[in-house]
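Why should sequence recovery work at all? Because a backbone constrains its sequence more than one might expect. Tight turns favour small or flexible residues, buried strands favour hydrophobic ones, and helices have their own preferences. The token representation captures these environments compactly. In the example below, the structure is given first.
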């Protein structure tokens, strides 16, 4: 029997409780044998901050997901996209992990779900992977947009789509970077080992209030 493999990509700059919430909800619903969490090297669809260091993002992601308990060895933070170099097109990652098992799914949030048809080789993404999405916002008007998009993907690509029905946890990496730069307390949103790493490496201009 083929292993059930899942991938969860992102910039993770920084990784936060919203990422952990999505991963744990996915693991509870989908029960994969392995969830690969994969920081992007250069995300094609996002602007990255100046002086971005993918290796530091990788380490923060490792620290963040090490705080998720109860899943044993079923979560692996992978440096696959960092090792590939250049822009991190999801289809190449999907093709790589599909060699491990054809039973492959990809976890994504609202923004990704609404834009998947614009991604490089979108048809192959839908062909090779099931799409499992989780809401990361609470906008009422977004529900109809997602329903319509899922219908479009199924009709055009014969897409296999599932939804994780949990209460959204609204957290923004962009807003967290601004709060860190302002010296605000982010301990409710960023795991403690990640916060310590950010402080030790002076990332995002962060200093604790008591250091100022």
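From this structural description, the recovered sequence reads:
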């Amino acid at each position: 029997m083929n292993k059930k493999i899942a991938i969860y990509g992102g910039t993770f700059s920084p990784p936060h409780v919203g990422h952990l919430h999505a991963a744990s909800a996915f693991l509870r619903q989908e029960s994969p044998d392995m969830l690969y969490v994969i920081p992007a090297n250069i995300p094609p669809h996002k602007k990255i901050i100046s002086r971005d260091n993918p290796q530091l993002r990788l380490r923060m992601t490792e620290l963040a997901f090490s705080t998720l308990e109860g899943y044993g060895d079923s979560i692996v933070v992978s440096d696959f996209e960092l090792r590939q170099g250049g822009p991190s097109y999801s289809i190449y990652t999907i093709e790589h992990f599909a060699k491990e098992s054809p039973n492959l799914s990809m976890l994504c949030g609202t923004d990704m779900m609404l834009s998947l048809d614009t991604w490089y080789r979108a048809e192959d993404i839908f062909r090779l992977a099931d799409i499992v999405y989780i809401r990361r916002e609470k906008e009422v008007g977004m529900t109809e947009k997602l329903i319509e998009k899922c219908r479009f993907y199924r009709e055009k690509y014969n897409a296999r789509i599932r939804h994780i029905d949990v209460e959204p946890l609204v957290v923004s990496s962009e807003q967290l970077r601004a709060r860190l730069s302002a010296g605000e307390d982010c301990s409710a949103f960023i795991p403690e080992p990640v916060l310590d790493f950010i402080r030790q490496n002076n990332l995002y201009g962060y200093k604790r209030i008591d250091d100022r």
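A few observations help interpret the result. DSSP finds nine helices and six strands in the chain.
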